[in-house]
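pinging the channel bc i need a second pair of eyes. not urgent but kinda urgent?? the chain im working w is below, pasted from the shared doc
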Amino acid sequence: MTPPNLPFHTVVRSPDTSGIAEAAALIAQGLPVAVPTETVYGLAADATNGEAVARIYAAKGRPAFNPLIVHVASLAEAERIACFNDVARHLASAFWPGPLTMVLPLAPDSAVAPLVTAGLRTVAIRMPSHPAIRALFAACGRPLAAPSANASGLTSPTRADHVLRSLAGRIPMVLDAGPTMAGLESTIVAPRSDGITLLRPGPVTAEALAGISGLPIGRKQDASISAPGQMASHYAPSKPLRLNAVEAREGEWLLGFGTVQGHATLSATGDLIEAAARLFALLHEADQGDSVEIAVAPIPAEGIGVAINDRLARAAAPH
């Protein structure tokens, strides 16, 4: 039963034909729906409808200066929203559909609601590969603004029950397709003719970007918000989080990796891909346990380990 101060009884549906049709009908009404992507579950609404986008912010409690990613079904649709340079087209050819978001100049005649970009002259855009959100594209015929489907600042959801934990009663529907594959949010880049700026590390690594583009990969140097996922405190469990732990202190739940054994492990074999896929699910598990604090073993800062460490550092930041 929905608590009296919340607007919805949140239903969970399979992303089959009827579930997708029901979700598309809700989106047509200007309501947000949680849907899986290959990275994490997203809270999707019509990116061209300002009121619908406002309902995403309201459901998440998200600061309005934090922009959203627009998800599209095709490159042609993306080019109606953003201005693509040659480097961006090359990256799209190599990594779309998939977990790469590009921050590009907003097209002059873009139909995206201004609230999506949080007043910036750029837009973050991605073409996801997960069949559930691609079926939703086909059914609703709209680009979808879709940040992670959780209360703002908390641990991102990789399963439908994670979504319900923080958004039950705040949204009308969750499409449940089981655990997501990548388990980390998309890589975000700003491509230019002379180089690529990495705004948020993710499943597409800096090495992969350099190998495909032949361009230098830089990191953003200032603290301004130019893309989603850049707030200093983000992805956080409700309990204090200690990093680079090799053993648990009293009252801690230790999340192990490789030779560091814990109450659970990101990967006993030290596989960073497995660790990325398990990270948010295990942080959710730790957050629900009896421990008063959480500790995480050291993670190598290589490949996708850079993205894992980025999420952990933000999760451990004061909030």
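so The two ends are 31 Å apart (CA to CA). and The chain has two domains: 11-219, 241-316. — does that match what u expected or am i reading it wrong
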